[in-house]
Amino acid sequence: MKTLSQLVFNNTYSELPTTFGTAVIPQPLSDPFLVSVNPQVAEMLELDPLEAKTRLFIDTFTGNEELAGTTPLAMKYTGHQFGHYNPDLGDGRGLLLGEVLTSTNTKWDIHLKGSGKTPYSRQGDGRAVLRSSIREYLGSAALNGLGIKTTHALALLGSTTLVFREKMERGATLIRVAESHLRFGHFEYLFYTHQHCELKLLADYLIKHHFPDLLTTEGGQEDKQTVSANQHHNIYASMLTRIVKLTARLIAGWQSVGFAHGVMNTDNMSVLGLTFDYGPFGFLDDYNPDYICNHSDYSGRYAFNQQPSIALWNLSALGYALTPLIDKEDVDAILDSYHLTLQRDYSARMRNKLGLAEKREEDTVLFSSLFELLQSQMVDYTLFFRTLSSISATDLSVSALPNSIERFDDLFSCTQPLKKWLKAYAVRLNFEKDDDESRLEWMKQHNPKYILRNYLAQQAIDKAEDGDFAMIDELLQVLSSPFDEHPEFNQFADKPPYWGKKLEISCSS
Ligand code: AMP
Ligand code: MG
Q1: In whole angstroms, how far apart are CA 474 and each of 316, 337, 478?
Q2: Which of 38, 310, 413, 504 is deepest in the core (most CB within 10 A)?
Q3: d(Cα 279, Cα 32) in Å, to the nearest integer?
Q4: pLDDT band of 226, cuts 50, 70, 90
Q5: Does ligand 1 come within 6 angstroms of the Cβ of 258?
Q6: How far, in Å, CA of 147 to CA of 236, rounded?
Q7: Ligand 1 in contact with 118 (CB < 6 A)?
Q8: DSSP label of 80
């Protein structure tokens, strides 16, 4: 494990031409202190988590000290926000400090969110508040714990600097860690400003650093595209194919755990298929496919059930921006592959949740009737699957069924339709070859006990605003391994209280 000053930096992005960003020095926050550090993320960087308590760490990541080896830079990108192109975007309140290189040659971007104004801040103050930083800190740990690709957060730092949102709040910084901070919007910027040589340079950069297998003769075969029109191999077509696949897998992951991102603008879409830029995100409590987590999303453009089609819309925007490198008809053909990957990945994830190793045609009916049932009775999505993970085949026998149904009493207002569904499920389980005990173990590993419910995040925020950070660390612990029992934290697995379901999360952060 290394100390902070022992980290090795290899800053490849800042070596790109100046059109890609602007060097900016972070602006200091007052009286900084550590709120929380995520030891798992420290480990990824080979950094001793105890370093987070040092003055150097706290001062470095609140803009009070410069760390040797870093080259702070605000990235330039643009993007489509709620369907409209905005040329005026870029890191307005965050900086890429540098890229840490580990002993295994893994490269991690270190990004400081809330570090002050940049040339891309527009009317903004360049700051992030403690409230929204806690949400991103816990949200990213939650998705990572669920096995869904995401940016990470190494630590959260607080200060006495006042920041005005709807009211006065405290400024904070979040140290975001990711394989890359490249967004769809990076490519859109270069396309719409007619910098096509730089567009190619960025594509080459992405391939070299993140999809190097596409450069070898053997690697990345399934994504290698032999372009239809002229039958030559186009590496950029392979790159887009890879991005489409990674995005489809990401969305399958979100839909399976009930995660709503809330602001799927193209500037918030990662080319590596990472969950990126946590704003007013939310996890489903009751199963409601129309769930809109973003209070400012009046039309429901980014509602939970719109995410699959919005991701494709965003991929089309990216594909269009890549037309100087890929023929239009090939872009269309590549985009066509999205649905198949999404469908395959989503159905595999949902079969895992129901403990169905075999793939059978009648499963479609079993799933659709389940979703209908969950929606009609507004059943808690997470708790339903977790409860189901404790129901053995014997529990579903005619004599045991009434008792088993009692375990769902808390979740259903009327259990008659559940009974019918469980009977169909019992019949379906007869076709499973694995023994029942391993099936239930498998299901527990795919149906989390803990998710980051809005009300839990809110409670942690309320306490933190009063100076008590213990709940942040407790939630971090359960969310990092959400499939485990953690009996000492059972209360975090409870159904949300009524007030907790009605929380409105605004875009202000
Ligand atoms: P977001 O809605 O967080 O995805 O941000 C959209 C754009 O607004 C990005 O270019 C951000 O950098 C910028 N932005 C968001 N909040 C602020 C802020 N407080 N100060 C400056 N720029 C901001
Ligand atoms: Mg953003």
Answers
A1: 41, 41, 7
A2: 38
A3: 23
A4: low
A5: no
A6: 28
A7: no
A8: E
Q: What value, to the nearest 5°, has the Cα angle with vertex 148 and ends 143 and 153?
A: 45
Main-chain phi, psi angles of 149, to 5 degrees: -65, 135
Longest dimension (CA), the chain: 72
Q: Which atom of ligand 1 is nearest to the CA of 125?
A: 20
CA of 75 to the centre of ligand 1 (A): 12
User: Separation of 473 CA from ligand 2 center, angstroms?
Assistant: 26
Q: What is the pLDDT of residue 217?
A: 73
Give 94's strand partners.
Answer: 113
pLDDT of residue 58: 98
Residue nearest to atom 8 of ligand 1 (CA): 92
The dihedral over CA atoms of 276, 355, 371, 244, expressed in degrees to the nearest 10, equals: 30
- pLDDT value of residue 372: 98
Q: 131, 126, 96, 98: which is closest to 114 by C-alpha? A: 126
| Selected catalytic residue, list 91, 223, 267, 345 | 267
Query: Structure pTM?
Result: 0.97
pLDDT category at 41 given cuts 50, 70, 90 is very high
CA distance linking residue 148 with residue 72, whole number of Å: 28
Decide whether any atom of ligand 1 lies within 6 Å of the 121 Cβ.
yes
* Contacts by residues 465-472 (CB-CB < 8 Å, ≥ 24 positions apart): 465/130, 465/131, 465/169, 465/170, 469/35, 469/36, 472/35, 472/36, 472/134, 472/137, 472/138, 472/156
The chain-wide mean pLDDT, for the chain, equals 96
Compute the distance from residue 88 Cα to the ligand 1 centre, in Å. Answer: 10
Mean pLDDT of all residues in 417-445: 96
Expressed in angstroms, the distance from the first to the final Cα of the chain is 34
Distances (CA, A) of 227 to 220, 335, 336, 443, 446: 15, 13, 14, 41, 38
Q: What are phi and psi of 380, to 5 degrees?
A: -65, 120
The domains of the chain are located at 4-182, 356-444
Q: Is residue 277 in contact with ligand 1, taking CB distance under 6 Å? A: yes
Residues in the chain: 509
